[in-house]
């Protein structure tokens, strides 16, 4: 029996990744519960595992005292020293009380408790494994979908992708392999719960890290991302290396790098713009492909607000379809942007005189 028990422990450790110590602890707790319930609930007992023989033993634990008040928990000094003359007051004596028929009763209780502990340990192992993937990209297989979620299998665990995390227009069929962004990992009572997304801006960032070595190693940095998933994304990039063009490096030769990301996002438009320390230059870049004549700030009223002046023929381009270009530029730069056509603006210099060549930066 002991060999069978040790073999079972080894199998659980190998197959489930659960250490023998965890299993032994669960077994000891189960046997202790069974003994107290069936043989002496009020006794002070403990269960120990003999690793050499592979057996569990039950012991009563009694404290050596001068005067015994409760025989269930105490033993007199004289009685203790009759067992071993070395005992002193305050010592604890373990006496084995394992019943002959204890194995059958204990096994029934132990099975349930052990399986519970095994499940808990397995859940913790899975949580520890997948929590490392938070804020990362992982590839999985679509299992099914219902009215609430798309369920994606990662092998040992199933992730869920809610409606807000699904790209509009994308369809997810069983057995489809897709890349998703792990937005949150929770360790719930029902096991690890993984939430993934296809709309999170982090997905775009991680995809560019995969496609652009210079972004992965930090030569080029993605400073900010503004995204309307499934339609259009703007990203701002910079490089501290004067010999590296951050936009050209990110786009890649003949646009190959950015196209790889576009393909993964099923045709989502991606604008790559250069981040500038000067807010007016950054805002002008963010409104690409529209031409910007000038950017004017109102530092006193709202330092994060500006008026952008564009040529009349570029007004609709600057605003974009349903205001998307201006909206994404504002999110990218963290400025409130008010776009006005050149014809609607009267340019003046510091003295209040009209000027023909405006420079309101």
Automatic annotation (TrEMBL):
<dbReference type="Pfam" id="PF13184">
    <property type="entry name" value="KH_NusA_1st"/>
</dbReference>
<feature type="domain" description="Transcription factor NusA first KH">
    <location>
        <begin position="198"/>
        <end position="275"/>
    </location>
</feature>
<dbReference type="GO" id="GO:0031564">
    <property type="term" value="P:transcription antitermination"/>
</dbReference>
<dbReference type="InterPro" id="IPR015946">
    <property type="entry name" value="KH_dom-like_a/b"/>
</dbReference>
<dbReference type="GO" id="GO:0003723">
    <property type="term" value="F:RNA binding"/>
</dbReference>
<feature type="domain" description="S1 motif">
    <location>
        <begin position="135"/>
        <end position="193"/>
    </location>
</feature>
<comment type="subunit">
    <text>Monomer. Binds directly to the core enzyme of the DNA-dependent RNA polymerase and to nascent RNA.</text>
</comment>
<dbReference type="Pfam" id="PF00575">
    <property type="entry name" value="S1"/>
</dbReference>
<feature type="domain" description="NusA-like second KH">
    <location>
        <begin position="279"/>
        <end position="345"/>
    </location>
</feature>
<dbReference type="Pfam" id="PF08529">
    <property type="entry name" value="NusA_N"/>
</dbReference>
<dbReference type="InterPro" id="IPR010213">
    <property type="entry name" value="TF_NusA"/>
</dbReference>
<keyword id="KW-0963">Cytoplasm</keyword>
<keyword id="KW-0806">Transcription termination</keyword>
<dbReference type="InterPro" id="IPR003029">
    <property type="entry name" value="S1_domain"/>
</dbReference>
<dbReference type="GO" id="GO:0006353">
    <property type="term" value="P:DNA-templated transcription termination"/>
</dbReference>
<dbReference type="Pfam" id="PF26594">
    <property type="entry name" value="KH_NusA_2nd"/>
</dbReference>
<keyword id="KW-0889">Transcription antitermination</keyword>
<comment type="similarity">
    <text>Belongs to the NusA family.</text>
</comment>
<dbReference type="GO" id="GO:0003700">
    <property type="term" value="F:DNA-binding transcription factor activity"/>
</dbReference>
<feature type="domain" description="Transcription factor NusA N-terminal">
    <location>
        <begin position="4"/>
        <end position="124"/>
    </location>
</feature>
<keyword id="KW-0694">RNA-binding</keyword>
<dbReference type="InterPro" id="IPR013735">
    <property type="entry name" value="TF_NusA_N"/>
</dbReference>
<protein>
    <recommendedName>
        <fullName>Transcription termination/antitermination protein NusA</fullName>
    </recommendedName>
</protein>
<dbReference type="GO" id="GO:0005829">
    <property type="term" value="C:cytosol"/>
</dbReference>
<dbReference type="InterPro" id="IPR009019">
    <property type="entry name" value="KH_sf_prok-type"/>
</dbReference>
<dbReference type="InterPro" id="IPR036555">
    <property type="entry name" value="NusA_N_sf"/>
</dbReference>
<dbReference type="InterPro" id="IPR058582">
    <property type="entry name" value="KH_NusA_2nd"/>
</dbReference>
<comment type="function">
    <text>Participates in both transcription termination and antitermination.</text>
</comment>
<dbReference type="InterPro" id="IPR025249">
    <property type="entry name" value="TF_NusA_KH_1st"/>
</dbReference>
<keyword id="KW-0805">Transcription regulation</keyword>
<dbReference type="InterPro" id="IPR012340">
    <property type="entry name" value="NA-bd_OB-fold"/>
</dbReference>
<dbReference type="InterPro" id="IPR030842">
    <property type="entry name" value="TF_NusA_bacterial"/>
</dbReference>
<keyword id="KW-0804">Transcription</keyword>
């Amino acid at each position: 029996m002991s060999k069978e028990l040790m073999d079972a422990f080894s199998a659980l450790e190998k197959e489930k990744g659960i250490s023998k110590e965890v299993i032994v602890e669960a077994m000891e707790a189960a046997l202790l519960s069974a003994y107290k319930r069936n043989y002496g609930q009020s006794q002070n007992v403990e269960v120990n595992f003999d690793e050499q023989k592979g057996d569990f033993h039950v012991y009563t634990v009694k404290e050596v005292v001068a005067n015994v008040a409760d025989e269930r928990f105490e033993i007199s000094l004289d009685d203790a020293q009759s067992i071993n003359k070395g005992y002193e007051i305050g010592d604890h004596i373990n006496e084995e009380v394992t019943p002959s028929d204890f194995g059958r009763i204990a096994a029934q209780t132990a099975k349930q408790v052990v399986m519970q502990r095994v499940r808990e340990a397995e859940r913790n192992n899975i949580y520890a494994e997948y929590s490392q993937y938070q804020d990362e990209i992982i590839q999985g297989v679509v299992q099914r979908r219902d009215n609430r979620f798309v369920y994606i299998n990662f092998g040992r665990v199933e992730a869920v992708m809610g409606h807000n995390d699904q790209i509009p227009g994308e369809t997810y069929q069983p057995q489809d392999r897709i890349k998703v962004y792990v937005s949150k990992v929770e360790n719930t009572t029902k096991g690890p719960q993984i939430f993934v997304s296809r709309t999170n801006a982090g997905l775009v960032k991680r995809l560019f890290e995969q496609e652009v070595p210079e972004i992965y190693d930090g030569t080029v940095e993605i400073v900010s991302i503004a995204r309307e998933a499934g339609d259009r994304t703007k990203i701002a990039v910079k490089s501290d290396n004067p010999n590296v063009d951050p936009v050209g490096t990110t786009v890649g030769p003949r646009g190959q790098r950015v196209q790889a990301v576009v393909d993964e996002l099923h045709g989502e438009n991606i604008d790559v713009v250069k981040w500038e320390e000067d807010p007016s230059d950054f805002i002008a870049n963010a409104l690409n492909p529209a031409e910007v004549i000038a950017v004017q700030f109102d530092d006193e009223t709202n330092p994060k607000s500006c008026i952008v002046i564009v040529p009349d023929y570029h007004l609709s381009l600057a605003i974009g379809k349903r205001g998307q270009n201006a909206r994404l530029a504002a999110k990218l730069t963290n400025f409130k942007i008010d776009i006005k056509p050149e014809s609607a603006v009267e340019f003046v210099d510091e003295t209040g005189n009209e000027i023909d060549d405006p420079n309101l930066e």
